[in-house]
Amino acid sequence: MVSSPLLVSLTLFLSLPLLLFLSPHILSPPDADDLTLFRRAAAPHTTSHLSATPKIAFLFLTNSNLTFSPLWEKFFSSSDHHHRLFNIYIHADPTQNIAFPGGGVFHHRSRLVPAKPTARASPSLISAARRLLAAALLDDPLNHYFALLSQHCIPLHSLQFTHNFLFKNPTHPHKSFIEILSNEPNLFDRYTARGEHAMLPEVPFSSFRVGSQFFILTRRHARTVVRDIKLWNKFRLPCVTEEPCYPEEHYFPTLLSMQDPNGCSGFTLTRVNWTGCWDGHPHLYTAPEVSPELVRRLRESNSSSYLYLFARKFAPECLRPLMEIADDVIFRE
Predict the structure, then answer these.
(1) For residues 289 and 274, what is the distance between their CA atoms, to the nearest angstrom?
(2) How many CB atoms lie within 10 A of CB 255?
(3) Which ranges does the record mark as transmembrane (predicted)?
(4) DSSP labels for 23-77?
(5) Coil, strand or helix at 2
(6) Alpha carbons 216 and 267: distance in angstroms, whole number
(7) What DSSP line would sit under 103-132, residue for residue?
(8) What distance in Å separates the CA atoms of residue 184 and residue 131, rounded to the nearest whole number?
(9) Are 111 and 117 in contact, with CB atoms under 8 Å apart?
(10) Where are the beta strands (DSSP E) in the chain?
(11) What is the pLDDT of residues 80-125, one digit of tens each?
């Protein structure tokens, strides 16, 4: 008869190949500093005084230089009372050599949040967005809307117009602007990217949604995101297929659709051109395409209630022609 210690050792030895095979798919624990940040942001805290001017928290998620910072500088300076209307937060991939804009409103009002490396088609982009939301929640109780943007985004209106649209438009009081889609042709392939039954039981296929990576959330929904653990543990699972695995386009619309569908417009305010694209990247606008007519087209919407406030994706070479039409077109309503 084999002794118990020997039997245990033999079992462990025989299990080693299986563990090595499964190791890439084993969920690693989240970093303790992230958990601490999210718990602090999700905890009840003092709300702002009702008579104070509410602010927009602009959350820049970037892995390269903020090429369009001069254009955003004009945007943030385009209102006489700009200092009361916004805050800026930047999550920059620490593995990249990134230079930040110097001088002006953009430089002095920007806050760098604790950042970690990010990679396309991985949960790291969700983590980065959650860090931005948590930092902005903790930083200023007057932050009532949270706009997630990339280094390729540009504004399509002035700061005052953007602020008025979000806070003074009676057609969408206290709603989040996030694309929520349930009828995409490859929806099931996206759902099973982590394995056929990996999302169950927390996320049945009937509840799975997709949408744009960039959004504008209310303070209530920002807290919903940083408070979530149950769905986050599912969407943190590594994909077993490379395509179509875009966790950042799945997690936020699914979570908010399950938690508060009536509190979401289902519409994104960031215009993206997907015409003719097949590799997961939208159309990249180049300098010859920039014109007053392009700006007017990008603003237009098929919705009677919503219009576009931002647009992407623009190549760095677009900065000069955009600056040339900024005052007379982009920031003139």
Answers:
(1) 16
(2) 23
(3) none
(4) GGGSPPPPPHHHHHHHHHHHS--PPPPTTSPPEEEEEEEESS--TTHHHHHHHHT
(5) coil
(6) 10
(7) SHHHHHHEEEPP-----TTSTHHHHHHHHH
(8) 29
(9) no
(10) 55-62, 86-92, 110-112, 143-150, 154-155, 216-218, 270-272, 310-312
(11) 777 789 999 999 989 888 877 667 777 788 999 999 999 988 899 9
The tokens describing 33, both together, are 């500093």
Q: Give the strands of the sheet with 110-112, arranged side by side.
A: 110-112, 86-92, 55-62, 143-150, 216-218
pLDDT at res. 29: 56
Domain ranges of the chain: 32-42+49-330
Q: Which residues contact 145 (CB under 8 A, 6 or more apart)?
A: 54, 55, 56, 57, 166, 167, 216, 217, 218, 219
* pTM (two decimals): 0.89
Residues 61, 246, 206, CA angle at the centre, nearest 5°? Answer: 125
Cα–Cα separations (whole angstroms), residue 25 to 19, 117, 239: 10, 20, 8
Task: Answer for the pair 215, 252: CB distance below 8 angstroms, yes or no.
Answer: yes
Residues shown for the chain? 333
